[in-house]
C-alpha cells in the first residue's frame, strides 16, 4: 500500500510539470487529493492494513497530501506570474520610442499650449485654496442662461450666439459660467473654485474670435467678499502667469450675472504678419469679472443676504495669444504641425 501511495505521488509530480492552465491544475488537485481522488481511494484499504503498516502509511500519506497541496499553490502562483508577464510583454510601452521617432524626423505627441496654460492657472488657484471643477459641454437652458439671470426674453441672450439642439432646450454651453451654478448647487459657502473648459459660439471667426474656444471660470463666495478681493486675485493671477506686472485696465462691463461688472483688458503688442518687426500696441479684452448678482446666488441655493461673491471668466486662447505673441487665434486649433511644433512640449 505504501508503494501504491509513493507511485501515486510520483505520477502526480510528472503530471503537474507540463500543465500551463490554472483550471487544469485545479482538476489535477481534485483527481489526486479531492474527496473522491486517487489518494482517498488508496487509503480506503487502510482498514485492512496491519497496525505496523498503518503507523507507516498514516504519516507518509499526510506528508504526501501536504506536498501535493503546496505543489498546487506554487504552480498556480507560477502560472499567475507568467500570465502577468505575458500581459506586460504584450502591452509594453517602449520608452525609447520617442527618441527614435525624433531621430527619424517625426514629432512625438505633446501638450497643446492652451492646455499648458490651463494647467498652469489651475496650479496657481489650487495653491490659493481653490478647487478645480468640471462641467458638461451639452447644457440645459437653465444652467447656461436662466440661473445666470438671463431669462428667455432678455436681450443678453443675443450676446452669445448659441448652438441649440433641435429640442430648443439643450445647447452647447456658450461659456463656463454654467460651472458657477453647478458648483454652487453642490456646496455650502464659503467656497472657491475654478472651472476650465471648451465653450462654443455660433459666430463668425476672425483674428481674435473662434467658434470653439476655452475659458476658465472662477468663483469665490463667502461672508464679506468684496471688489477688493476680486482685484487682488485677478492681479495675482496675471502676475503669476506673466511673471511680471502687466499693464491692465479695468472698465465697467455689463453681464447680467454680475453687479457691478468689469472688463479687465491687458496691454499687448500684436505682431504684424506682413512685417515681423512691427508690433501694434493695443488692448485685448481678456478677463470679464464682477460681483455675483444676488439672483444668481439665489439660483445656486446661496442666501444673498448672508453671502457675497465674485466671479470671472478668463479667455484661455487669448491668453496664449498674448503670451506667445500670436497674431491670429485661428492658428491655435487648425492642427497645422508647422505651428504646433514651435511650442516646447516636454
Ligand atoms: C463671458 O463668457 C462671461 N461668461 C464671462 C464672465 C464670467 C463675466 C464671470 C463675468 C463673471 P465673454 O463673452 O466676454 O464673457 O467671454 C469671456 C472671455 O472669453 C473674453 O474676454 C475673451 O477672452 C474670450 N472670448 C469671448 N469670445 C471669444 C471668441 N469668440 N473666441 C475666443 N475667445 C473669446
Note down, in words, how this protein is organized.
By secondary structure, the chain is of the alpha+beta class. Helices cover 41% and strands 22% of the residues. It is built from twelve helices and nine strands. A seven-stranded mixed sheet has the order 1-4-5-9-8-7-6, sandwiched between helices. A hairpin with a 5-residue loop joins strand 6 and strand 7. The longest helix has 40 residues, at 51-90. The protein starts with a helix and ends in a 6-residue tail after the last helix. The model has no long low-confidence stretch (mean pLDDT 88). Residues 160, 175, 177, 201, 203, 209-210, 213, 215, 255, 258, 261, 285-286, 288-290, 311-313, 315, 317-318, 329 line the site of adenosine-5'-[phenylalaninyl-phosphate] (FA5).
Keywords:
346 residues; alpha+beta; BirA Bifunctional Protein, domain 2; seven-stranded mixed sheet; two-stranded antiparallel sheet; binds adenosine-5'-[phenylalaninyl-phosphate]
Present the secondary structure layout:
Blueprint: H1 2-16, H2 22-33, H3 38-43, H4 51-90, H5 97-103, H6 113-127, E1 131-132, E2 138-140, H7 141-144, E3 170-172, H8 178-186, E4 191-200, E5 212-222, H9 227-242, E6 248-252, E7 258-272, E8 275-292, H10 294-299, E9 308-315, H11 316-324, H12 337-340
Helix pairs in contact: 1-4, 2-4, 6-11
Amino acid at each position: 500500500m505504501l508503494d501504491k501511495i509513493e507511485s501515486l505521488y510520483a505520477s502526480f509530480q510528472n503530471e503537474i510539470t507540463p500543465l500551463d492552465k490554472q483550471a487544469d491544475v485545479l482538476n489535477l488537485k481534485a483527481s489526486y487529493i479531492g474527496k473522491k481522488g486517487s489518494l482517498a481511494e488508496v487509503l480506503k484499504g487502510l482498514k485492512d492494513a496491519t497496525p505496523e503498516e498503518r503507523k507507516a502509511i498514516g504519516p507518509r500519506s499526510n506528508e504526501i497530501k501536504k506536498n501535493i497541496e503546496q505543489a498546487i499553490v506554487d504552480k498556480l502562483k507560477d502560472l499567475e506570474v507568467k500570465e502577468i508577464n505575458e500581459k506586460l510583454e504584450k502591452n509594453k510601452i517602449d520608452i525609447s520610442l520617442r527618441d527614435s521617432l525624433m531621430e527619424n524626423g517625426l514629432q512625438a505627441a505633446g501638450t497643446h499650449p492652451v492646455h499648458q496654460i490651463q494647467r498652469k492657472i489651475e496650479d496657481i488657484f489650487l495653491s490659493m485654496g481653490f478647487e478645480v471643477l468640471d462641467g458638461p459641454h451639452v447644457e440645459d437652458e437653465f444652467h447656461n442662461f436662466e440661473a445666470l439671470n438671463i431669462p428667455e426674453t432678455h436681450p443678453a441672450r443675443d450676446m452669445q450666439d448659441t448652438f441649440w439642439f433641435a429640442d430648443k432646450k439643450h445647447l452647447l454651453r456658450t461659456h463656463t459660467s454654467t460651472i458657477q451654478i453647478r458648483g454652487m448647487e453642490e456646496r455650502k459657502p464659503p467656497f472657491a473654485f475654478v472651472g476650465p473648459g471648451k465653450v462654443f459660439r455660433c459666430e463668425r471667426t476672425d483674428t481674435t474670435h473662434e467658434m470653439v474656444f476655452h475659458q476658465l471660470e472662477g468663483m469665490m463666495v463667502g461672508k464679506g467678499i468684496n471688489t477688493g478681493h476680486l482685484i487682488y486675485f485677478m492681479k495675482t493671477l496675471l502676475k503669476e502667469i506673466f511673471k511680471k506686472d502687466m499693464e491692465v485696465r479695468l472698465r465697467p462691463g455689463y453681464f447680467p450675472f454680475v453687479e457691478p461688472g468689469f472688463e479687465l483688458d491687458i496691454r499687448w503688442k500684436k505682431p504684424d504678419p506682413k512685417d515681423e518687426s512691427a508690433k501694434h500696441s493695443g488692448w485685448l479684452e481678456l478677463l470679464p469679472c464682477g460681483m455675483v448678482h444676488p439672483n444668481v446666488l439665489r439660483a445656486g441655493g446661496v442666501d444673498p443676504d448672508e453671502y457675497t461673491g465674485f466671479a470671472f471668466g478668463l479667455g484661455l486662447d487669448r491668453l496664449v495669444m498674448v503670451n506667445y505673441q500670436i497674431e491670429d487665434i485661428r492658428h491655435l486649433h487648425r492642427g497645422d504641425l508647422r505651428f504646433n511644433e514651435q511650442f516646447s512640449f516636454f
